[in-house]
Write a structure and sequence with these properties.
- By secondary structure, the chain is of the alpha+beta class.
- Helix content is 36%, strand content 25%.
- A 7-stranded mixed beta sheet has the order 1-2-3-4-5-7-6, with helices on both faces. Strands 9-8-10-12-11 form a 5-stranded mixed beta sheet.
- The relative contact order is 0.12.
- InterPro entries: Acyl_CoA_acyltransferase, GNAT_N_AcTrfase_prd.
- GO terms for molecular function: transferase activity.
- This is Putative GNAT superfamily acetyltransferase.
C-alpha cells in the first residue's frame, strides 16, 4: 500500500480508507500494487482472457490501452499472491465536475476465490481514489449473477442506480455467451456511512424474510425447477429473485437463461425506472426494492 497517497482533503476519511484497505489486503494474503509496466499490463490482459475465456483474438482489454490509461493517471492495479497475478482492476475518470471514477473491469482468478481478494481490490481502489478528489466510483454488473449482486450491494454497500438493457451489445466470451448484456450501474459513494461501515466488515443489512413479514410482496420468484415466476409489485417493498447459478444455466439451458433475462428486465428495470430504490440484496438471492412514497 506504499503507493497510496494522502493529502489534507479529508485526512480522517483518507487515513481510515487506507487502514481498511491495508487490513483487507493482509486478510486476503495478497499484495496489491499499481501497474504501469508493459510486462505487468500484458499480465492483466492474459488474466482477463483466462477469467472470461475469450481467447487471444478477443481480449477484454489490450495491454497498449492499459499502458495509455496508466500514463494518463487512470487507476490500474494488480493483486499478487507471491509472484502470481491473481486479480486486476482498472478504471478511468468521469468528467471533472462529477468527481467520479468509472471502474470498468475487475477480475479475480478462480484459484483464489473465497479469500476476499475482490473486496481487498475495491478497498485499495477506494483508498487510491479519495485523496485524488474522487467522491464516488461507478461500475456495472450483471444483475442475474447472484454473488456479484451480493458483493456490490451488500458487502460493499454500493447503490444500484440504473438498469441498462443490453448495455454492451453482443459479447463473444464464455461467461456472457449469447445472452443480452443487461447491466445495473452502481454508485459507490466513498464517504457514506454505509460504505465506511462495509469497508471495516459491517455489510449493509438485507433480510428478505423480515421484509416479507413486514408486508413485502414477491415481484419475481424462483420455481422449484429454477424458472422465473412472475408475481406482483403493488406494495411498498418488492422482492425480486434471481437463480442460484445463471452462468451454469447459460451452458446447460440457454433458453431458460434467456427467460430469466427477460423476466428480470420486466420487473427490476421497471421498478428502477419508476424511481424505486434497491435497499439491499439478501444472500439467498433476493433484491429488496422499496418504492418511493408519492408526494
Amino acid at each position: 500500500m506504499t503507493d497510496l497517497i494522502r493529502d489534507r482533503r479529508d485526512s480522517r476519511l483518507v487515513d481510515a480508507a487506507c487502514a481498511a484497505a491495508e487490513a483487507a489486503e493482509r486478510t486476503a494474503g495478497i499484495d496489491i500494487r499499481l501497474l504501469d509496466s508493459v510486462g505487468d499490463l500484458e499480465g492483466v490482459r492474459r488474466l482477463y482472457e483466462h477469467i472470461w475465456r475469450t481467447g487471444e483474438n478477443n481480449p477484454p482489454v489490450t495491454a497498449d490501452l492499459l499502458v495509455a490509461m496508466a500514463k494518463a493517471g487512470s487507476y490500474v492495479s494488480g493483486a499478487f499472491d507471491g509472484d502470481e497475478m491473481v486479480g486486476a482492476c482498472f478504471g478511468f475518470f468521469s468528467p471533472p465536475a462529477r468527481e467520479a471514477l468509472h471502474s470498468h473491469i475487475a477480475g479475480v482468478s478462480a484459484r483464489v476465490q473465497g479469500r476476499n481478494v475482490g473486496f481487498a481490490m475495491k478497498l485499495h481502489q477506494r483508498a487510491w481514489a479519495l485523496p485524488r478528489g474522487v467522491n464516488e466510483v461507478c461500475w456495472t454488473y450483471d444483475p442475474l449473477i447472484r454473488r456479484n449482486a451480493y458483493f456490490n450491494i451488500t458487502k460493499l454497500a454500493a447503490d444500484a442506480d440504473e438498469y441498462l438493457p443490453n448495455f454492451y451489445g453482443p459479447m463473444d466470451d464464455d461467461i456472457n455467451r449469447s445472452d443480452d448484456t443487461d447491466r445495473i450501474m452502481v454508485r459507490w459513494r466513498l464517504g457514506s456511512p454505509d460504505v465506511e461501515a462495509a469497508c471495516v466488515g459491517r455489510p449493509r443489512a438485507a433480510d428478505a424474510r423480515a421484509a416479507l413479514a413486514d408486508g413485502a410482496v414477491v415481484g419475481l420468484g424462483v420455481s422449484p425447477d429454477d424458472c422465473p415466476v412472475a408475481g406482483r409489485s403493488d406494495a411498498r417493498t418488492v422482492l425480486v429473485g434471481v437463480p442460484a447459478d445463471i452462468e451454469g444455466m447459460r451452458e446447460s439451458d440457454p433458453a431458460r437463461a434467456a427467460r430469466w433475462r427477460g423476466a428480470l428486465r420486466d420487473v427490476l428495470c421497471e421498478l428502477l425506472t419508476e424511481g424505486a430504490v434497491v435497499r439491499g440484496f439478501d444472500r439467498a438471492g433476493w433484491y429488496i426494492v422499496d418504492r418511493q412514497e408519492s408526494k
